[in-house]
């Protein structure tokens, strides 16, 4: 083999090694406060460019659920440098993933598979997510397909929120087993509103089936704005639904 051939092969090999190294670049750490469901899931979160959720601007997110006027569930998650670090409720049982449209479940339910595909770079015009989760009682599976239907400046919805809000119409199909019982696949149609400034979904509401009577969901998001000042925005599902219809 002549020197020219060897040099050419060496260049190809170096290019391949460089490409492989780029593919395996660690992008984030699994949060220390959360149990990883498996080494494979930990690696997926740490190395997949799309697997993260939340930007460094997000300080905390709060979800409040009301039934007939009474608050029945509250969950607070505090963030530091895009990573959940503390909270209340069941905050440490899941890790938001894939831009906040899914999550890695940690305990007692554990994610065994979470696959994401898209039509292009984020924010994609279309994407799909498949998940499989297990717990001591059985297995649950879901497949979600989302299509971007609207993209507007965030301040048209929420006055102090920078960036844009991308609205996705999603169809989620789910099914699974629980003990000896197998529940047939069912489907939900919903609207998800994604903030590119915060890196998460800040509001979701069902298209079909309709909202449960007396049920109300409120989100509260604390963040640092472009001037370094702390701000809080509040989303009410009914209010966001109304604005989505009007804008």
Structural class: alpha+beta
Number of helical regions: 3
SS strand fraction: over 45%
E-strand count: 13
Our count of domains comes out at: 1
Elements, N to C (H/E):
HHEEEEEEEEEEEEEH
Mean pLDDT: 89
Described by strand count, sense and barrel closure, the largest sheet is: 6 strands, antiparallel
**How helical, in percent, are the residues?**
10-25%
Tell me the Rg in angstroms.
21 Å
Distance between the termini: 68 Å
Organism: Pseudomonas fluorescens
Keywords: Signal
Protein name: Lipoprotein
Signal peptide: 1-22
Structure notes:
- It is a single chain.
- The protein is α+β, with helices and mostly antiparallel strands and 247 residues long.
- The chain has one domain (27-246).
- It is 16% helix and 51% strand.
- The strands form 3 sheets. It has a 6-stranded antiparallel sheet. The chain has a 5-stranded antiparallel sheet with strand order 3-2-1-12-13.
- Strand 10 (181-195) and strand 11 (200-208) form a beta hairpin.
- Keywords: Signal.
- Residues 1-22 form the signal peptide.
- This is Lipoprotein.
